[in-house]
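User: Before I run my own analysis I want an independent prediction to cross-check against. Here's the chain; please return only the structure tokens and, at the end, one sentence I can use as a sanity check.
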Amino acid sequence: MANFNVNMAGPLDSFKGPWGPNAAGPGGAGSPGTPKVGAPDGRNTDFADAVKGIGQYISKVDGLQQSSDTSIKDLLSGKNEDITSVVSAVAKADMSFKLLVGVRNKLIEAYKTTMNMPL
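Assistant: Structure tokens:
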């Protein structure tokens, strides 16, 4: 039986937004419990800018989905006979989509929590 090593790096692996390892708050740099959103070079970014930056990752996930669809069509039409590359493309597209949905759900949860805070 063959041993396949598939690189599952997705488009969101390089995302270094305010939730990365250098983010402030528990487990991150800065004072404990004080969340700060900012770029590594010290300039401030607000929440809206962080959400807008996700748009580029959405287009990358869409590109992976289209690439996956193309590889499936090529396999079915006989243009491509390598099923391993097709399975790999489908797995990458699936994992990146699941990660994107998870990020979306966390953003919605954070928005709802913020809106329910008393003034």
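Sanity check: The two ends are 62 Å apart (CA to CA).
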